[in-house]
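Subject: two folds for Thursday's group meeting

Dear M.,

Sorry for the delay on this. The cluster queue was jammed most of the week, so I only got both jobs back this morning. I'm pasting them in the order they finished. Each block is the input sequence followed by the predicted structure tokens. Could you check whether the formatting survives your parser before we put anything on slides? The first protein is the one we discussed after the seminar.
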Amino acid sequence: MITDPIADYLTRIRNAVMANYRVVEIPVSNIKKEITNILYKKGYILNYKFEDEPKPGKIKIALKYHPVTKLPAINKLERVSKPGLRRYVGADDLPRVLNGLGIAVLSTSQGVMTDKEARKLNIGGEVLCYIS
């Protein structure tokens, strides 16, 4: 049993990037699907696929690397709000990652979104992770 599935998700991606894997498989959940969709929209991953066929489904994520230098698109994944210490921010205190070059993923009343989207909607929420 995993006590923090989001931290497990981030750790699997981080380990796959460090080992230069092309594809990583992760157990599926709705919040992981949302975070994966955000990573794809923001250009941090190449592609993804949700497989729900065998009952404990999987997310297959194709990682993105620079074609010439082979450097990964994801440099840093950091879990912020943990089960032991939740971190909530208001609309006025939304974090900026690398002065706007990275993204913060938030869970809000309107769903899972980036810090820029939350700033535009003027809502706060729980800061799940930082990605740069």
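Second protein, same layout:
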Amino acid sequence: MSSISSPMQFAARQTATIMQQVLLAATPSILISTWFFGYGLIINLLVSSVLALAFEALALKARGLPIKYHLADSSVLVTALLFAVAVPPGSPWWLLGMGIGFAVALGKHVYGGLGHNVFNPAMAGYLFLLLAFPLEMTTWYLSEAALNLGSSASPLGLSALLQNLQLTFPFLANSLDIDGLAMATPLIESKMSLQSAINRALAEELPVLSRSAETGWEWINIAYLVGGLFLLARRVISWHIPFSIIATVICWSGFFYSDGSSSVMGTPYLHLFGSATMIGAFFIATDPVSAATSNPAKIAYGIIIGSSIYAVRVWGSYLDSIAIAVLFGNFFAPLLDHFFRPRIYGQGAGRKLHKPKAPDNPLSTQEAMHERT
């Protein structure tokens, strides 16, 4: 006879399985990023993952929790992946360490660990770095081969790898003599120069899969879209949050866009495929802990995030908007869950359960009963 009392509901999938599927869904975009922009992201992932596991183990030990058991759920690796993708490729190790340490310690364990964090840990760590080190967080280094159209050198080659190692570990600067170039995403470039890299690539009819760093962001976002559809098919996430975010961004960008206008920001297509909209909609905002839970609340949550993404991009002073928008949505998630509470079973729409109204004057009620008798 089982010692577990009923009622009891067992999850069909463990947390580790869900986290591994998220990691798998993000793999194509990581490979495409490496193809177009070199090894910087791979180095970010390796350094962030090692440091995240170390900080997670220290936090678990300080709290007196079993280290091996909690590390096996792979949740901290998902945090490391989202953080590594957000920060500039080839960032110094100390910058990655400060950000991932903030994410694990203050973004996660200070609230009680997995399942209790109010804000998305990876985005909390990223925003901390953005506020503390704005220069380092807005400089994206690429190998020269990744920017030269038709160059025989490959961004996956040894020179690109050595350059990113030099940027990550500055003490190698004396032994490596490799120049680096900086660039932003096409959407940021559009905001700063009123001309996007994607539009220029289309106008110049560049090869779609060339390593010119012109169409790379399109393919990265398409890969995140495919990965998100995979998560939807596996029912790891639901459609409500991604759909509402993407639909909101399309509506706002389409409403304010004017062809030939000098106002910042471009077409809805550029908003979707020229920045981090897809990873934000499918991988970051859908965090099951910090996001809203009921379906109506998820839609409202996505609308808040989508509106915040557009507002920060167009009218805000920060170039990145996903982290700020997601944390802003996390702030409203508990309120949305409270407002959109599921209806009590058996209570129809529009019906309210009324309690019998107490008499205003008990004495008058007794007198009326006496008259009837």
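Two things I noticed about the second structure. The radius of gyration is 25 Å. The chain is about 60% helix and 0% strand.

Cheers,
T.
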